[in-house]
Amino acid sequence: MSTTLVLSEQQALSFVLDFMKNSTNGESFVVSGNRDGLLGTRNLNATIKKTLYPQKPGNPSHPDANGDLVTPGDRITFLRNDPQFGIVNGDCVRVTHISENFLTVRIASGVKVTISLATVPFALAYAMSYHRWQGQHADSALFIGQDAATISANFTPDFLSRMASQAPRNVTFLRQNADGGFIFQQFA
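The structure corresponding to this sequence follows.
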C-alpha cells in the first residue's frame, strides 16, 4: 500500500524527526542523497541528535569527525577499517561508554570493543548517505532524494528493490519534485 503527500522542505525535516522519534527500537535509519543542506546527512545527524537525543549534563562526550558531540547510547559509524579491533569502514554500532581517551562500542556480534579515540575516526549515524547505507539492515528506513541527478541515479527499480530488502518492515521515500516540494511515499 502506498500513501502520497507533498511537503515543503521544513515539513520534510519535521517528518524526518517524527519518523525517528516514532522508531520504537532505535533501528531506523534516514538515508539521504546529499551531505549538505537542510536534508543532508550532516544537518540531519546534528538535528536528530540535538532534538531526540540531547546531551545530558555530566554525560561524557567526544566530538566525532564532523564536530558533533557523541555520548553513550548514540549510534555511530566508523570511517576507516581497523582490523586489530575487527572494525570495518561503515559498521554501525552503539556507543556504550566514553572516557577521556577511549570509546567502548557494541559491535554487530554483540561483543563490546574498547578502542582508543585516536585510532579510528567515527561519525553519528542516525542519517547516512546512500553509499554508506549499502550493506546496512534496519526495520525501517526513510530515503531522501533532493535533486534530479540524485533521484535518477539512485531511485532505480534495482535500488528500490535493494532498499526494500534492507528495511523490510517499512520503506519511506521523500523525493523532491520540480516545484521544490517533497513527495512523500510510504510502503509498508
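The longest helix spans residues 9-21.
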